[in-house]
Amino acid sequence: MTKEPTRGKRKKAATPTAQKPAPAARSTAAAPKAEAPNRARRLCSLGALMPAVTRPTFRRQSPAAVQVMLDWADIVGPELARVTVPRRLSGGTLTVACAGPVATELPYLAPGLIARINGVCGTGVVSRIKPLQDLALRPAPPPPRPRPVPAPVEIGDMPEGPLRDSLSRLGGWIGQRGASRRRGG
User: Fold this and answer.
1) I need a labelling partner for 66 at 20 to 30 A (CA). Which of 51, 95, 142, 156 fits?
2) Domain boundaries, position 161
């Protein structure tokens, strides 16, 4: 009496197989077409494919974190967005880099910010805000004041048209620039 091995590879018993007809025996007129691979025959919607495509990206950063990063100025307002930048959202804690004294002010603003962020991204996305003072982050300078548009220069010897209009406006800007240089400005 011999025992079969319980571990390792087992040899398959030889099974009799039906013999296939030789390729020459089939007629070419009735030959079936080569079957397409399984993936080509199976149709599925784009929505069914999206989880497989987005899963690697969402492992690195959640969709809620991306939304907070992209919509930061709309969520917190332009004044606070100018001096803060969201750095990381992990485990319900949003790390925010702040410029200057805003880092000490941010804990007092946190309940309102958390409510606004959760209102935009969904309940429970952010439960805590961690301020991080970043010396490299500086407030953006205010935008320059718009200069007044000068009066166009009269051009008498050109026919009416877009070229004449453009040149007369250009002449006005050049005249204003020359006048400011003469004044010492």
Assistant:
1) 142
2) 144-185
Q: What is the pLDDT of residues 34-69, one digit of tens each?
A: 665 666 667 778 777 777 777 776 666 677 788 888
Are residues 124 and 53 part of one domain? yes
Q: What is the dihedral of CA 124, 130, 135, 139, to 10 degrees?
A: 40
Are 79 and 116 within one domain? Answer: yes
Question: Quick one: 125 and 51 in the same domain?
Answer: yes
Q: What is the 3-state secondary structure (H, E, C) of 111-145?
A: HHHHHHHHHHHCCCCCCEEEEEECCCCCCCCCCCC
H-type alpha helices, 14-161: 38-41, 46-60, 63-70, 72-76, 78-81, 102-121
Is residue 174 included in any domain, yes or no? yes
**Span 115-170, pLDDT tens digits:** 998 888 888 888 999 998 887 766 666 778 888 888 888 888 888 899 989 999 89
Helix (H, G, I), strand (E, B) or coil at 38: helix
Residues 183 and 115 in one domain: no
Could you tell me which residues are beta bridge partners of residue 84?
A: 98
Which helix (H) or strand (E) element contains residue 162?
Answer: helix 162-183
For residue 42, the one-letter residue type is: R
The reply to whether 175 and 102 lie within a common domain is no
Instruction: Using alpha carbons, select from 130, 100, 99 the residue that is nearest to residue 113.
Output: 130
| Strand, coil or helix: 185 | coil
